[in-house]
Amino acid sequence: MKILLAGLAGLLSIVLTATAATADPGQVTAGDVQTADACYTWSRSLSQGATGDDVRQLQIRVAGYPGYNAVLGLDGDFGPATKAAVTRFQQAYGLTADGIAGPQTFQKIYDLQDNDCTPVNFSYDELNNCNSDWSGGRVSASQARANALVTMWKLQAMRHAMGDRPVVVNGGFRSVSCNNAVDGATNSRHLYGDAADLGAGAQGFCNLARQARNHGFTEILGPGYPDHNDHVHVALRSGQLWSAPNCGI
Fold this sequence. Notes:
With 249 residues, the chain is α+β, with helices and mostly antiparallel strands. The protein has helices at 2-16, 30-34, 53-61, 80-92, 103-112, 141-161, 176-181, 205-212; strands spanning 169-171, 195-198, 219-221, 232-235, 241-243. The radius of gyration is 19 Å and the shape is globular.
């Protein structure tokens, strides 16, 4: 019992000493921690200057809000770019837009994610039609799965920006053998788990391609690009490759 009480006291101490009282609208409290969901629990409010894995977990959830033609680094360092992304996330959901992640921001994230940390409108199954264990790509299975998680959060942001209408995912991760079977490029981002192929759905190919420019995708290929007239491909790559000529991109 003494050990349990000491642990609870330690958690409360962490919560009560978290950063400045300007969060949205106040500090994370023990009550906020107790009501958090099964995926990940933030135990302090986060603002510019904070560092740590809790910052990185926040960055993953707001990776889809970097601004036009930008990518948010997932480095665990709450700098100006993270503050801007948090602010855009808050604006998108009608929260106090101060760039500080506190109770309101975390509660909205909790509302948006399932217990496996995927956003509510996307799943690992959608991002992997190749195999069950994410193996055989250009990175480890765990890294491919982690990359897919970030892609899903970007797609969640994109979906919300487009009126919360469904975004159809037709494919994602491929092992080398799966990629060869569909004659994929040898350097395809699908081999890294950070790519998704999108169907037109209710949104339309060109609307998807144009919107993707705001959500952290450095590779956007769509109608008018060879072999991409029947889908929009979005991914993260080194350097920018946007090409959907029929959509003005």
